[in-house]
Amino acid sequence: MMSMHEEAVALALQVDPELAMAEADKVEDDEDLRKKLWLMIAKHVVEQEKGTKRENIRKAIAFLKETDGLLKIEDILPFFPDFALIDDFKEAICSSLEDYNKQLEQLKEEMNDATHGADNISWTDGFILCLSVWTFLPCTMPNCPCDSLYS
Q: Which residues form the signal peptide (predicted)?
C-alpha cells in the first residue's frame, strides 16, 4: 500500500509535475521517502518528454539540479533507454565525479585529522604515565617523551 505522500505525488503527476515536486518537498523528516518521491517524478519526467533524445537528456539534467543534490545522475540513468549515447551525459557524469572527488578529499582530511588526534592522545598518555612512574623509578620506556626532559 502506498503512503499518502506517494499517492499524492502519483496523482499530482497526472495533473502537473510542478505540483508533484511541491508535494515531494513537503517530506522533510524521511530522507529515503523524499528520495523515492523524487525518483517517481524523475521517471515521469524522463518518460513523458516527447522531444529529441538530447533535449530529453538536457531536461532530465536540469531536473537533477532542482532536486538540490538529492538525486544524482546515476539515480536517473536507468530511466533512459539502453541505446542512449554516453556523450549526451558527459557533462553530468563529470560533475558527479567531481562531487565524489570532493567528498573523498574531505573524508581523507577528516581521517588525517583523526589520526593526528590519536597520535597526540597516545603521546600525552605515555608522557603522563611515564612522569608518574619516573617520580619513583627511572624511565625505561623506549622513545619516551620524558627522556628529553631529564637528559
A: none
Helix locations, 1-151, DSSP H:
4-15, 17-25, 31-48, 53-66, 73-76, 90-134, 147-150
Burial class (CB in 10 A: 0-12, 13-18, 19+), 137: exposed
Q: Grid coordinates representing 54?
A: 538530447
Residue 15: Cβ within 10 Å count: 9
> How many residues belong to the chain?
151
Burial of 32 (0-12, 13-18, 19+ CB in 10 A): exposed
Q: Is 139 helix (H, G, I), strand (E, B) or coil?
A: coil
pTM of model > 0.70: no
Mean pLDDT, contiguous 10-residue spans, the chain (151 residues)? 79 88 86 89 79 69 81 81 67 79 90 76 57 56 58 48
- d(Cα 90, Cα 77) in Å, to the nearest integer? 12
Backbone phi and psi for residue 136, each to the nearest 5 degrees, phi listed first: -105, -35
